Amino acid sequence: MARRGISELRSQRWYASADMRGFAHRQRTQQMGLRREEFMGKPVIGILNTWSDMSPCHAHLRDRAEAVKRAVWAAGGYPVELPALSLGEVMVKPTTMLYRNFLAMEAEELLRSHPIDGAVLLGGCDKTTPGLLMGAISMNIPAIFCPAGPMLNGRWKGRTLGAGTHTRAYWDKLRSGEISQDDWVDLESRMTRSFGTCNTMGTASTMTSIVDAMGLTLPGASSIPAADSGHTRMASACGARIVEMVWENLRPSDVLSRASFENGARVFMALGGSTNAAVHLVALARRAGVDFGLSDLDRAAGDVPVLVNIFPAGDRLMEDFFFAGGLPALVQRLSGHLDMSARTVTGTLAQMIEGVECYDDDVIRPLENSVTKAAALAVLQGNLAPSGAVIKPSAASPHLMRHKGRAVVFDTHADLVARIDDPALGITADSVLVLRNAGPKGAPGMPEWGALPIPKHLLAQGVRDMVRISDARMSGTHYGTCVLHIAPESAVGGPLALVRDGDEIELDVAAKRLHLRVSDDELALRRADWTPPAPRSLRGYTALFCAHVTQADQGCDFEILQGGPDEPEPEIF
Ligand code: FES
Ligand code: MG
């Protein structure tokens, strides 16, 4: 690999110039107590840190940033830590998805506006992985993703507990009287045992594993538990490697190709991953200028069965996955389905699996013994979803994969909360629960409202799943027969806006079909009658979001952010 000289690095436009500005940049760096020789003539490594006191999953990232710095210094670089929006999934309202693009913009602009030659991106809680990477891909300077790592396994009264998945499961048990209020309080302190991202196959581990397979992390980095000392060593190794990557000028555009996205999609399916990844992968591809969409994801789901036995599709947790060999062992299992010549930040996928073994065939299943017969994702089409919708068959009920039922429509999430338990609605186990105005513009931010609650009287009868459809998303840790991401969404006039109580809706997952059994003529009449939701008075970022966000099938990125690194370098004066 040809190595660049120091004068070719962008930081040197700030530091090496002989004019008054150059003086000011050197002066201000010395103001922080650094000697000239500590930073002059060195690659500047930006450490984008999504740590905050409101992000428990990232509670250790200040320590990890120190490990990165240590290694950057040792490798002859100059590390600088730049705080970025933390997006703790559970704390941020109304939904972190509203702010993913904010983080993406921030990451890109932090890198552009500062004298940064290469970046280590510290994140992992759901939206932080796509957010940081979308920005880094658009900026296209050498970058390496350092995943926060999953939290340790949870146990309670002898039972395995997974973050997210079991919150919902035990909430249903509380509502149906199977556990006591004291149990519920006790569970608060048992389910999330350590810092780190959710230990289930939620959006966090889905996304960090996918980007690991796409070559954007050190090989296997995504599987290392956050609290393992190996995690700190991994962070340190990121620091060492990024300095080399700057000399090599190995940029995201050198790592990512259509093959990497196809690989990422296949790993997504083998993980039994979160449906959220269907939005994020499309957004990442559009940043990278790679032609990749829902149909590619659907094809990948048909090619690769669910092999990773982790909640919610399976019954184990990320710590088990790590001990089984982690992502490299999964990549090895899938190697016949992957393009092993695809690049990583250190080499190729083929190199990633050299000497790799799987130590637990129950956690990482052989191809002939998949976790479920059902696929991790299916993309549905039909008159209710002209631009597509998704469902996660592996986390749904087999008996509902082909279902016809009468719609019970909730116009907003507030309406859902107010009325779902109302016996007067006459909801039966066969009803199809419909939620609208929950999409990217409608909610706004497309919250994880898609696993609509089962009405109390049906829970009491033992009903645990129903067909639910919406333009919302669903948490990767949840389960249920939930049709999600309906596009176009109702708020922009998608057919979901036209559904009425009592309409018959047909779901046929095998046929990839979602159909509203209402005639075209009747739908045309209803459309003529339809008025868009009253415009809300929005301000600031939310106004910007609603003005620019694209639909779910296009990744929900801002249309002004798609595409690549054609932005000129900032003028320096
Ligand atoms: Fe952060 Fe689940 S809440 S990863
Ligand atoms: Mg989540």
UniProtKB/TrEMBL annotation:
<dbReference type="GO" id="GO:0046872">
    <property type="term" value="F:metal ion binding"/>
</dbReference>
<keyword id="KW-0408">Iron</keyword>
<comment type="similarity">
    <text>Belongs to the IlvD/Edd family.</text>
</comment>
<dbReference type="GO" id="GO:0016836">
    <property type="term" value="F:hydro-lyase activity"/>
</dbReference>
<dbReference type="Pfam" id="PF00920">
    <property type="entry name" value="ILVD_EDD_N"/>
</dbReference>
<keyword id="KW-0456">Lyase</keyword>
<keyword id="KW-0479">Metal-binding</keyword>
<feature type="domain" description="Dihydroxy-acid/6-phosphogluconate dehydratase N-terminal">
    <location>
        <begin position="42"/>
        <end position="348"/>
    </location>
</feature>
<dbReference type="InterPro" id="IPR052352">
    <property type="entry name" value="Sugar_Degrad_Dehydratases"/>
</dbReference>
<dbReference type="InterPro" id="IPR020558">
    <property type="entry name" value="DiOHA_6PGluconate_deHydtase_CS"/>
</dbReference>
<dbReference type="InterPro" id="IPR037237">
    <property type="entry name" value="IlvD/EDD_N"/>
</dbReference>
<dbReference type="InterPro" id="IPR056740">
    <property type="entry name" value="ILV_EDD_C"/>
</dbReference>
<dbReference type="InterPro" id="IPR000581">
    <property type="entry name" value="ILV_EDD_N"/>
</dbReference>
<protein>
    <submittedName>
        <fullName>Dihydroxy-acid dehydratase</fullName>
    </submittedName>
</protein>
<dbReference type="InterPro" id="IPR042096">
    <property type="entry name" value="Dihydro-acid_dehy_C"/>
</dbReference>
<feature type="domain" description="Dihydroxy-acid/6-phosphogluconate dehydratase C-terminal">
    <location>
        <begin position="362"/>
        <end position="556"/>
    </location>
</feature>
<dbReference type="GO" id="GO:0051536">
    <property type="term" value="F:iron-sulfur cluster binding"/>
</dbReference>
<keyword id="KW-0411">Iron-sulfur</keyword>
<dbReference type="Pfam" id="PF24877">
    <property type="entry name" value="ILV_EDD_C"/>
</dbReference>
